[in-house]
Specification:
The protein is built from 20 helices and 23 strands. Strands 2, 3, 4, 5 and 10 form a five-stranded mixed sheet that branches. It is elongated and about 125 Å long. With about 600 residues, the chain is α+β, with helices and mostly antiparallel strands. The protein starts with 5 loop residues before the first helix and ends with a helix. α10 (about 255-260) packs antiparallel against α20. It has two domains: about 60-250, Penicillin-binding protein 2a (Domain 2); about 270-600, DD-peptidase/beta-lactamase superfamily (Beta-lactamase), CATH 3.40.710. It comes from Candidatus Synechococcus spongiarum SP3. Keywords: Cell inner membrane, Cell membrane, Cell shape, Cell wall biogenesis/degradation, Hydrolase, Membrane, Peptidoglycan synthesis, Protease, Transmembrane, Transmembrane helix. It is found in: Cell membrane; Membrane. Belongs to the transpeptidase family. It is a single-pass membrane protein.
């Protein structure tokens, strides 16, 4: 037999076994190299950029520096809104985990006399975008001193600076000024490109919102070298934050306070004081009001939030920019419609009676008997309803609507905070035929009762105090519709605005303006507004108004619209007291008079 002997086969078997072991080791080594290579490829190529960023973040940290929001000042430089510095306790995210955190938490709890549970809740509220975690709200001075004294023994914790909005006059001009609150995650997702950060506060209402870009400033930051333990080693550089710009307003603080005081006893109402020459708002009050300092509080109880946002009193609603039935202050529109239509020229006289029938209703005069044969001036002086029924019905709804539009009704006034404004309503035939906003077209036709009511500012007419002020400013200045404003700057560009150039001419005949001016002067000289006369005031022109509350069917509203001096007007004052039975001469007039007194006798 040809082959190896048993003794020869044994060495061969050993050689084969040796080769198998080496092959296995080689395979294992090759597999290890492949795994390591794959891991290196994954870390360096696939996730290379992400890991390089992480590596840098392990040694370098950017600490944003918050800008100070600009102040708001009244026309004389009095501070209406400012920001005040506060201190908060922060911890770096790296130190907010593991045994080091438990030790730090215990020391901070003891030092500040704050339950560890509270610190833990704040740590757990960490958001992905936070570069540090706020462990407390505003620190007391004593707490701040303790933390600063023991800073070296509190690794990872630091006292930081924050700025909160402050409104030194509380509720005064709250609806004009507005308020700020922290930016939300959703807002941040589309505002990051504009320089907003997760710690930002943003203007929500009023001028805080309208002039957000002017007031907010620009964030800065510090670049810090940090050890593996999270301790700051040294600063590497700093870009200072840019403070926001101050904003000077047209408001007069003293006049604003006088207007607030004048209307204080009325639960719901508004006051607007305006320069009729260019539309500058000197005072704007809305009742009820709120304290914007509430929104700077670190903790906002739910009961107080509900009182602001869910209350039937609607304290957040700006009554100066929202519509109500105006009553007789709207009769100047009806008078203008009559004269401009040509149906009832300025020299017209009409017979007034106890009541006049339109449709199925006899519409009364307010004195129950009428005023005989009178013209426009005496009709305004006595506020005769039956005179204006005849003018309104005879002119027609579209003529009334056209005159209203020319005087600024049914449209936004152009004020910077117009996003809070309701343009109101002046009903007419086309509006009724289209369904009145709630019915199918053709189901709600215009009827005689509508026209009679609209003629005296009732039922289908709703206007805001700001719109009334704008219309009376046009009468006062002889035909220019001004644009109300609270600042001399354009809110979009921050550039100065020539507000006189923003005025629009109202295409009424000179005789129309003259007739309205004479009539409004007679109202105060010897009419329903006689109580406005005072030895300390110049001649005042104005109009009383008493309106049914067609929205909530409550008590009558009281109005008074006025301007002075009659021959060279400097100020328009409109006062509105909701659901105050007794009439404009009883409630609206005293409010307006107090504001006039404050303006002319500071």
């Amino acid at each position: 037999m040809i082959g190896a002997t048993p003794m020869e086969e044994e060495p061969l078997r050993q050689v084969g076994l040796g080769q198998g072991k080496h092959g296995l080791l080689l395979q294992l080594l090759l597999a290890l190299v492949l795994v390591l290579s794959g891991r290196l490829f994954w870390l360096q190529i696939v996730q290379g950029e992400q890991n390089r960023v992480r590596s840098r973040e392990n040694s370098v940290r950017v600490a944003p520096s918050q800008p100070i929001r600009g102040q708001m000042l009244d026309r004389h430089g009095e501070v209406l809104v400012s920001s005040h510095l506060v201190h908060k306790l922060y911890v770096w995210p790296k130190q907010a985990n593991g045994p080091d955190w438990r030790q730090l938490r215990h020391r901070l709890s003891t030092l500040l006399d704050v339950p560890e549970e509270d610190l833990e809740k704040r740590r757990a509220s960490f958001r992905a975008g936070d570069y540090r975690i706020a462990l407390t709200d505003v620190l007391t001075p004593a707490q701040t001193i303790k933390l600063l004294e023991q800073a070296d023994e509190l690794p990872g914790a630091e006292v930081g600076v924050d700025y909160l909005r402050a409104y030194p006059h509380g509720m005064t001009a709250a609806h004009a000024l507005g308020y700020t609150s922290p930016i939300t995650d959703e807002e941040l997702s589309h505002l990051t490109g504009q320089g907003y950060q997760i710690q930002d506060r943003i203007g929500r209402t009023g001028l805080e919102a309208a002039y957000e870009q002017h007031l907010r400033g620009q964030w800065g930051g510090r670049t810090l070298e940090v050890s593996a333990n999270g301790d700051v080693q040294r600063p590497l550089g700093e870009k200072p934050s840019v403070p926001g710009k101050d904003l000077t307003l047209t408001l007069d603080l003293a006049l604003q306070q006088a207007a607030e005081k004048a209307i204080a006893k009325y639960p719901v109402g508004a006051v607007v004081a305006m320069d009729p020459r260019d539309g500058a708002i000197l005072a704007m009050v809305s009742r009820p009001a709120y304290d914007p300092n509430f929104f700077s509080q670190p903790v906002k109880p739910q009961t107080q939030l509900d009182a602001l946002f869910r209350s039937s009193a609607l304290p957040m609603l700006n009554r100066a920019l929202n519509p109500y039935n105006p009553g007789s202050v709207f009769k100047v529109v009806t008078a203008a419609a009559g004269m401009e239509s040509g149906m009832f020229p300025p020299e017209t006289t009409l017979h007034t009676t106890a009541c006049m029938v339109y449709g199925s209703h006899c519409f009364p005069d307010h004195n129950g008997e009428g005023f005989g044969n009178i013209g426009y001036e005496d009709a305004l002086r006595f506020s005769s309803n039956t005179f204006f029924y005849q003018v309104g019905v005879g002119s027609g709804s579209m003529e009334l609507y056209d005159a209203a539009v020319k005087l600024g009704f049914t449209q936004h006034s152009g004020i910077e905070i117009g996003f809070e404004e309701d343009p109101g309503l002046v009903g007419n035939e086309e509006w009724a035929a289209a369904g009145r906003g709630w019915a199918e077209p053709g189901q709600t036709p215009w009827i005689p009762e509508d026209m009679a009511s609209a003629s005296i500012g009732q039922s289908v007419v709703q206007v805001s105090p700001m719109q009334v002020a704008r219309a009376y400013a046009a009468i006062a200045n002889g035909g220019w519709l001004v644009r109300p404003h609270l600042s001399s700057l354009n809110p979009q560009t921050g550039e100065p605005v020539d507000w006189l150039s923003q005025r629009q001419p109202v295409a009424f005949a000179p005789e129309t303006w003259t007739t309205l001016q004479r009539g409004l002067r007679k109202v105060v000289a010897d009419g329903t507004g006689y109580g406005m006369n005072s030895e300390t005031l110049p001649h005042v022109s104005g109009k009383t108004g008493t309106a049914e509350d067609n929205s909530s069917h409550g008590e009558d509203h009281a109005w008074f619209a006025s301007y002075a001096p009659s021959d060279n007007p400097e100020v328009v004052v409109v006062a509105f007291a909701a659901n105050s039975p007794g009439g404009g001469s009883v409630h609206g007039l005293p409010i307006a008079k107090a504001v006039m007194e404050a303006y002319f006798n500071p």
